[in-house]
Design brief:
single chain; eight-stranded mixed beta sheet; 24 strands; alpha+beta; globular
Length: 522
């Protein structure tokens, strides 16, 4: 057995939004965590721009939604616009559903914000140790733990940390995934891109028609913060070392713009499109871009990673605290791998359509073809109407007891969301009292929603964290349960079991909890 300098329950590798969110979630469960990030500080680049409605539900559970919203753009920025140049008129536009305005299916609204504005909020959301400038360079798997070799670049020393589990959220070029020899599936690298962060006065063209991003055939422009700042991103030009970046931005703005860009920083990056073949390897779990790297079009990447660790962290806590068996962790891959593949397919389709419409528009100008002619819109009229993909995720695993219910899986391309209380689905949002949603009843415990809490009170078992919540009759009817029926909701807000009427035996609830947390047949 390798000698370790320290021991923790979970070692998180990677200090991006997914790793930081996992740290906050695990701390709320009382799990001892160490997070290491190879870079010396949080990233100064905007990177991910969209926090969708499901992610905001998770942040509401963490008590962060109001702070994130206060730092973000107003809802009117929840829109994309297509222009021939930034200073031209829109030739098309689309709202981001669940971001530009509230939707009745959720108690929250998504926001447009930059990742460098989001990450400090997530970092401050927990007190557990974070080590910047520390890189994982090797792993040794043991029967009951994993020993990680860490290189501290600032101190010039190596240390070993023993963890019960390792959560690898170390990006698309994941060191952990590489060390484990886990392959990927999907198109892979789609090309090299560059982001230029700059200051300039562009309000004359955009203030009256706000958007989270303006797509043009010469690259895309995005406002960074409510108080100012812009980013341009597009294909990486040749000879980047000699590139005149203010001139690159000026040419992308188009002739006649007459704007001088003050460049702040430049980043080159690769747009990837893949899903890891496995999310679980012994006591090591992949998350975020290490598990699924998605093209940026549609804003699905970071949000998919946040939903995944929300699925995972309660399971890790259950295993570490002893009320769940280790094989519960198998359901993480079983539930989230299909979601990642489906989301990858959607993101790749988004990207192809985006390239098509911008190329078609550019070709029209080159050939003199009338630009008023019809072009296929890149969202097929519903590009950002993706609530089905965001809120309609369905889990089918041993951690869901379907009984006689059917839980249809979301098919590729589905955009509609129809709330349902079928097992495996996210619990629908209803207002229990003014300002308090059904989703607010969930936390570091299982929740039993029932019209008759008294009937179920004596059926509980102290082995599992469980709270009983009254479900008003009008909501019970919509959920398909009778006066003594109940819904058992997992800590991640997905329905684990449903009884349409009173159970036949007193041990029904205990049996369900044991089956879900031990992945045993019901």
């Amino acid at each position: 057995m390798a000698v370790a300098n320290a021991e923790v329950e979970v070692l998180i590798v990677g200090g991006g939004p997914v790793g930081l969110a996992a740290r906050a979630l695990l701390e709320r469960w009382g799990v001892r965590v160490l997070l290491v990030e190879k870079h010396a500080a949080l990233s100064p680049f905007p990177r991910s721009r969209l926090v969708n409605v499901r992610s905001m539900e998770i942040f509401r559970q963490l008590g962060l939604a109001d702070r994130i919203t206060a730092d973000a753009f107003a809802p009117k920025y929840g829109r994309v616009r297509f222009r021939d140049t930034l200073h031209g008129r829109d030739f098309s536009t689309a709202a981001m559903v669940g971001v530009n305005a509230p939707v009745p299916e959720s108690p929250v609204i998504g926001v447009v914000t930059s990742q460098d504005r989001l990450e400090p909020t997530l970092l401050a959301a927990a007190d557990t140790e974070v080590r910047f400038g520390v890189e994982l360079v090797d792993l040794t798997e043991e029967a009951e733990s994993v020993v990680a070799l860490l290189a501290d670049h600032r101190r010039g020393e190596e240390t070993r940390v023993r963890a019960r589990y390792v959560l690898a959220a170390d990006g698309a070029g994941s060191t952990v995934r590489s060390l484990l020899g886990i392959g990927t599936e999907g198109p892979g690298a789609l090309g090299g891109f560059t982001t230029v962060v700059f200051d300039a006065d562009l309000g004359r063209w955009c203030a009256h028609q706000p958007a989270g991003v303006y797509f043009t055939p010469h690259g895309s422009f995005a406002p960074l913060y409510p108080e100012g700042g812009w980013a341009w991103f597009g294909a990486t030009p040749e000879h980047t070392r000699e590139a005149d970046w203010p001139d690159v931005v000026a040419r992308a703005l188009g002739p006649g713009a007459d704007v001088e860009a003050e460049v702040v920083r430049v980043q080159h990056w690769v747009m990837n499109a893949f899903v890891a073949q496995r999310f679980l390897h012994g006591r090591i779990l992949l998350a975020g871009d290490a598990a699924h790297a998605l093209p940026i079009i549609g804003g699905l990447g970071m949000n998919t990673g946040l939903a995944a660790v929300h699925n995972l962290c309660w399971k890790l806590a259950g295993v570490l605290h002893g009320w769940a068996e280790p094989n519960l962790l198998d359901t993480y891959e079983k539930e989230r791998h299909p979601v990642a593949l489906r989301t990858l397919s959607q993101a790749v389709a988004n990207t192809k359509l985006m390239v098509h419409v911008l190329t078609r528009r550019r070709d029209q100008f080159a050939t003199g073809e009338p630009t008023s002619s019809e072009i296929e819109l890149p969202w097929s009229d519903r590009f950002f109407a993706q609530l089905g993909l965001v809120l309609g995720v369905t889990y089918d695993s041993a951690a869901v007891l379907t009984g006689n219910s059917t839980a249809p899986e979301l098919s590729d391309g589905d955009t509609d969301y129809v709330p349902t209380a079928e097992p495996g689905h996210r619990m629908p949002h209803f207002w229990l009292t003014p300002g308090r949603s059904t989703l607010d009843a969930f936390g570091e415990w299982f929740t039993l929603l029932t019209p008759d809490p008294t009937h179920w009170a004596h059926r509980t078992d102290a082995r599992w964290p469980l709270r009983i919540e009254h479900l008003p009759k009008e909501h019970a009817d919509l959920c398909g349960i009778r006066p003594q029926g109940a819904l058992l909701v997992r800590p991640d807000g997905h329905i684990g079991a449903r009884w349409q009427d009173r159970p036949s035996t007193d041990g029904t609830l205990q049996h369900a909890l044991a089956s879900i947390t031990r992945s045993a047949p019901f």
